[in-house]
Design brief:
The complex is a heterodimer. Helix content of chain A is 68%, strand content 0%. Chain A is an all-alpha fold. Chain B has helices at residues 4-21, 25-37, 40-59, 63-101; strands at 110-119, 127-130, 143-145, 150-157, 162-166, 174-178, 185-189, 198-204, 215-218, 230-234, 239-241, 246-253, 262-267. Classes of the chains: A mainly alpha, B alpha+beta.
């Protein structure tokens, strides 16, 4: 089940990066493109293992950077930093609650781009940052937060529809069968 | 809390990130090409999907509408032919004057049409990718424009695609000339991340006399952009900055960078 979840998350990340680069609607209407990778990272952290989180950070980061002007690999660590602590503490998180997913999505969507920009600035790059970036950041947070429960619902549905489901064990035991009638 | 597998994951991801970030630029470009080529089937699919509504609309367009469009295009064509004749006469006259004055002959522009296939998914860069690459003769720093004006320059090239850094990105600075009596020159640089139709024209002299509505063109200085490509119009009066050391003004771009579909790459 975990392997299928990992494949599902990686496929979703691939499609998300592609859609972000060819669908400019959010950028034209809201002034900022919504990044879905942090929301997917929350799903991976809560539904897969550390391998899933690591693979999503590496491949998602590489795919994103290959279509962007970012230096290749700069998005890997911010995504991992978002997903890894949540993966470690996931037993204490009410992962089924949409509100918890929303809050985690907002936090991830706030932290990941901020860390990426910090890494770019510390690497001597000159990203386009100004007062308008605060608005873009807020749009990314709101968009990521709203997208997280949707992504959870969508990927859980895909998992139930296409993934292997272990057969539920019944409480019936032949040795405890109550035999009726005469022998 | 930390188990061995957690340390392994942490180490592996950090190692991969550091390795990729420290690769030489040639290896990075190959890696970007390899990773980016994974998206090629999706780009083809998206292109077909975009084409489908247009094809459907074409197939149901009535004959009367087609005839009307042909008529309009004929008239436009006639008008453009007359304008082309006028332009050719002006060019001949210009060449004669240049030769009589001993000036260098102006080289005509060679252009190649390209489709914009994607935009930068990150909000902190202003770049697009076009469907021409090194196999089409594209090289870095070639100017990119539309009919309205300058768009940017080619920043990196792969075999089939090229990245174009747009005006307003911090990595695209252009030497600009204002069409006013004093012919003020300055540098076009980034303004803000939200409005991509406005840029800053900075490093103008403190005595610059800019008025809203004046045209701004490339100055030809710097060697990347040829002289005379329209950039935009001055949107406001010049303001002194750095205690009056120089002035700067906002320029409204002629090209609509938010709706780029096809662009022209200028060849030397």
């Amino acid at each position: 089940m975990n392997v299928f979840n990992i494949i599902l998350v990686l496929a979703a990340a691939f499609l998300a990066v592609f859609c972000e680069s060819v669908l400019p609607a959010a950028r034209n209407w809201l002034g900022a493109q919504i990044d879905l990778l942090p929301a997917l990272m929350i799903f991976a952290a809560l539904n897969t293992n550390t391998a899933g989180v690591s693979l999503l950070a590496i491949f998602g980061g590489l795919w994103f950077d290959s279509l962007s002007a970012n230096p290749l690999g700069v998005s890997i660590l911010p995504l991992f930093i978002v997903g890894f602590p949540i993966c470690l503490q996931r037993e204490f998180i009410l992962r089924e609650l949409p509100f918890a997913q929303l809050v985690l999505g907002a936090i991830a969507s706030a932290v990941a781009p901020a860390l990426t920009v910090l890494l770019l600035l510390s690497g001597g790059k000159q990203p386009l940052v100004g007062w308008g970036s605060i608005w873009q950041w807020l749009v990314m947070i709101a968009g990521g937060a709203l997208a997280t429960p949707i992504i959870f619902a969508l990927l859980n549905w895909c998992n139930h529809a296409f993934g292997y489901q272990p057969r539920a064990e019944t409480s019936f035991r032949p040795d405890r069968e109550i035999r009726r009638g005469r022998k | 809390m930390f188990k061995q597998k957690h340390y392994l994951a942490l180490g592996a991801v950090t190692l991969v990130a550091v390795l990729v970030l420290s690769l030489p630029s040639s290896a990075v470009s190959h890696l970007i090409l390899a990773v980016g080529s994974l998206f090629l089937p999706l780009f083809g699919l998206a292109n077909s999907a975009q084409q489908l509504p247009a094809d459907l609309a074409d197939s149901v367009l009535p004959r009367r509408e087609l005839l009307r469009q042909i008529d309009t295009l004929r008239r436009q064509n006639d008008l453009l032919k007359v304008q082309a004749l006028q332009a050719a006469a002006t060019a001949r006259e210009n060449e004669q004057l240049r030769s009589s004055l001993g000036w260098q002959r102006q080289v005509p522009w060679k252009l190649k049409l390209a489709n914009v296939v994607m935009r930068d998914p990150a909000n902190w860069w202003r770049t697009v990718q076009i469907d021409l690459g090194s196999r089409d003769g594209i090289q870095t720093n070639q100017p990119v424009l539309v009919a309205d004006g300058l768009v940017g320059r080619v920043s990196s090239v792969s075999l089939t695609r090229s990245q174009v850094v747009l005006i307003g990105d911090p990595n695209c600075r252009i030497s600009a000339l204002v069409e006013n009596p004093t012919h003020d020159t300055g540098i076009i640089s980034a303004s803000g991340p939200l409005d991509n139709s406005l840029v800053e024209l900075t490093y103008l002299s403190s005595s610059a006399n800019l008025k809203p509505g004046q045209n701004v063109f490339t100055s030809g200085l710097g060697g990347v952009f040829p002289k005379g490509i329209p950039i935009g119009i001055v949107a406001e009066d010049a303001q002194p900055v750095e205690f009056g050391l120089y002035t700067e003004a906002r320029v409204k771009l002629s090209a609509n960078l938010g709706a780029l579909e096809q662009v022209w790459v200028l060849f030397p």
